[in-house]
Design brief:
Length: about 425
């Protein structure tokens, strides 16, 4: 069935009540889809924002209500049926219907899979001991929060964003925090060594013990609870509790079970369409053809990406032009540092620092073939908007000019565009 054939009697079902699913549901109505929209979400609450889980919500600076992405009224107005606390167990593509956890079934004309991902487990001996925790959901934070008491020893496995954000919250609260990172530096997958050094220094100054090149090989427990963390090099670290933050596993099992193409994510085209033309997929669970900025296949894990794909799928299903994918961007809050990143820096040839790293106010530009391919901005909220344009247009600006703060970025941009 083509989107043109959808009418007021058609049903679009969405599996997954994260930001991608929640956004797609209301956008379909905004795009004047007149049929039935049903969102089935396993978590029993309205779609919420995960970024604050490791930041303000963990720190108890905001409550649960502040996490909610859109109030119930937004879904009511858009006449979206919210089936929360229900799980889809199977997609029957032949019959075009879904099987839910209670055995109920219902049909769809178009289906959007927005099942996100789950925390990647660490499969080492002792990993099932008590007080070894992960952070993906509100429920996870609610287990973590009561343990965050001053003087307790927290070992964090993984020096990525989530691990470092939790470290920042925990050390401020008076915990003894150790971060164990297997790579030679923190944030190794996403930033240049200079940025990793910067973040390692900031954390160490705050009192966090950062240990890189540490491969966790197991845990020992006492009375069922973790007591120490062991590394392959023979070192051990005592712990009252452990947080594992080593990435995400995309929830692709439903798609796989239905015979859709899956390759470290549900494979979709520029229109967010899977190998079945009536089934789309968006958000963290997707390996998509980034037909705009990146021009390659990629699975991105970020809110801007989830929302961009929601816009694409709503346009696609309602037969509207699909907006080109923009340069991916992301943010991370640690202490009083607001990190904002745009583009992907892998393969860069030159790094240009504009600003003052010692004063924690700078932008790092990544250049390839003389062009700006990515930027990491620390505490430069105003300049980040300009950096997004510079990266988005892959502008060519001489490194010396880029580093020269006496010329505003906006002027550089205009000069380069002229
Ligand atoms: P999800 O948010 O994972 O939602 C998927 C939903 O589908 C879940 O509720 C799941 O329970 C449900 N589901 C799965 N299977 C089924 C099923 N079979 N039936 C019914 N429901 C199902 N991004 C940023 O851009 N900036 C940040 O600073 C940032 N910080 C983060 C901090 C943390 C701690 C975490 C965990 C993530 C962070 N992210 C951040 C990533 C961002 O939150 C995700 O990219 C975004 O939430 C993806 O949205 P999604 O809707 O694709 O998936």
């Amino acid at each position: 069935m083509d989107s043109a054939q959808l009418d007021a009697t058609s049903t679009v079902a969405i599996i997954g009540g994260g930001q991608a699913g929640g956004e797609a549901a209301t956008l379909l109505r905004q795009n004047r889809f007149e049929g039935r929209i049903v969102l089935i979400g396993e978590e029993a609450c309205l779609p919420y924002m995960r970024p604050p889980l490791s930041k303000a919500f963990l720190a108890r600076e905001i409550g649960r209500d502040a996490l909610i992405y859109k109030d119930a009224i937004a879904y009511e107005k858009a006449q979206v049926e919210m089936r929360l606390g229900e799980r889809v167990e199977e997609i029957d593509r032949q019959a075009k219907r879904l099987v839910l956890n209670d055995g109920a079934t219902f049909g769809y004309d178009k289906l959007v899979i927005a099942t996100g991902g789950r925390a990647r487990p660490l499969p080492v001996p002792g990993a099932e001991s008590g007080n070894i925790l992960y952070l993906r959901t509100i429920a996870d934070v609610e287990v973590l929060q009561p343990l965050m008491e001053s003087g307790r020893r927290l070992v964090i496995v993984g020096g990525g964003y989530v691990g470092l954000e939790v470290a920042a919250v925990a050390v401020k609260r008076g915990l003894a925090v150790t971060v164990l990172e297997a790579a030679p530096r923190v944030l190794a997958r996403v930033t240049a060594p200079a940025l990793s050094d910067f973040y390692e220094r900031v954390h160490r100054e705050a009192g966090v013990e950062i240990r890189t090149g540490e491969m966790v090989s197991g845990f020992t427990a006492k009375d069922g609870r973790v007591a120490s963390v062991h590394c392959a090099n023979g070192e051990s670290f005592p712990a009252d509790f452990v947080l594992i933050g080593i990435g995400l596993v995309p929830n692709t099992e439903l798609a796989e079970g239905a015979g859709l193409n899956v390759d470290d994510g549900i494979v979709v085209d520029e229109a967010s369409r899977t190998s079945d033309p009536d089934i789309y997929a968006i958000g963290d669970c997707v390996m998509h053809a980034h037909h705009g900025f990146l021009r390659r296949k990629i699975r991105l894990e970020s809110v801007p990406n989830a929302l961009e794909q929601a816009r694409a799928v709503a346009a696609s299903i309602t037969g509207r032009p699909i907006p080109a994918a923009t340069a991916p961007w992301f943010w991370s809050d640690q202490y009083d540092l607001k990190l904002q990143m745009v583009g992907l820096s892998d393969g860069y040839e030159e790094l240009v620092i504009r600003g003052d790293m010692a004063a924690s106010s700078f932008i790092a530009f990544y250049l390839k073939d003389g062009r700006i391919i990515a930027a990491d901005s620390v505490n430069r909220l105003g300049d980040f908007m300009a950096a997004k344009r510079l990266v988005g247009d892959r502008m060519e600006i001489a490194p010396a000019r880029l580093a020269d703060e006496s010329v505003p970025l906006k002027l550089l941009m205009r000069a380069a565009a002229a």
